[in-house]
Amino acid sequence: MANDKANHITGLSLDAPRGDARLDLRDLYVFQSPHDPERTALILTANPDGGALHPDAVYRVAIDNDGDLRNDIAFNFVFSEQVAGRDGPRQKVDVYLALGSTARVYAAAGSRIFGDVEVSFDGTPHVWRSGSFTFFAGVRSDPAFVDLDGLVNVFDPAGRRDGQGPWTGQDSRAAANVMVMAVELPTSYLGAHPDVRVWGRCSLLEDGTWVHVDRIGHPLISSFFKTGGPPYAFAGSEPNQDREHWIGALIELMGHTGGYAHDEAAEAINAEGALPDVLTYNPAKPAKYPNGRTLSDDVITDRVAFLTNDDCPPSGLTPHDDLLLDFPYLGTPH
Fold first, then answer.
1. Do 219 and 200 meet the contact criterion of CB atoms below 8 Å apart?
2. CA–CA separation, 137 and 54 (whole Å)
3. Could you give phi then psi for residue 27, rounded to 5 degrees?
4. Where are the domains of the chain?
5. What's the mean per-residue pLDDT of the chain?
6. Fewer CB within 10 Å, N- or C-terminus of the chain?
């Protein structure tokens, strides 16, 4: 399988944390509501199997609005144990909103703004509202489009076929589902002056101690660092430490994938904004990666061009045609 092959490629790891798909963060999306430009959608996806999430974990969307790359706002999602229902699996979720120093607590701190919300496991998206917040949690079609076997070849220059690039033409996520946590809120609540930085986390309670086990910001970036250093070193670190701790490893990887010289790679990292590993979002500008990320952005082409020093053609894949016009925007699960 593509995942098994990728796990042995230097600089790219698609392993789930602790070998548990429930803890695996997939993608982060930030964009303006198509119906109201004064509102912003924050969408975190997890679990490539599209199943229930871990009851001993906290899933988090973190927001920095003062430039120090530390949580100023956090939406914390806590899931119950999955139980068998008459019509299929059932799980509930609580959503906590934390502000200021409380947003930096590993546990699910803050005010509970949604409680005992039913997770949607069927094709009907059950949308919940509380004040100015709109929320959805459930299984949906994965909007990410990526040729995973081709992506593996990017990290193995010998696998780039003569004149054809690395791609196989197959969308590995075309029939895949993910678990979705989606919040829509007034953009003014973000406190963007002019922008904010957004990232996702998954923290697990182990033997009475909270441990950060996964982190997501830019597409793919966290996958470059899962194979190096102590377990979960990258996931456990803060974005304000990324350049100090990880830029050397990224420069080395870019030398392998794109033949970059050291200074050339450092310049490309700065131009791309690849570190720190956070999405930057200025709501006064249209959302399109790297300004936030929409569900139809071709982020893999962007990332591969960066890695290979523009020495790789686009994959040729296109956005999925099952996206919705209305919240939660992701298509019906397969």
1. no
2. 14
3. -150, 160
4. 2-307
5. 91
6. N
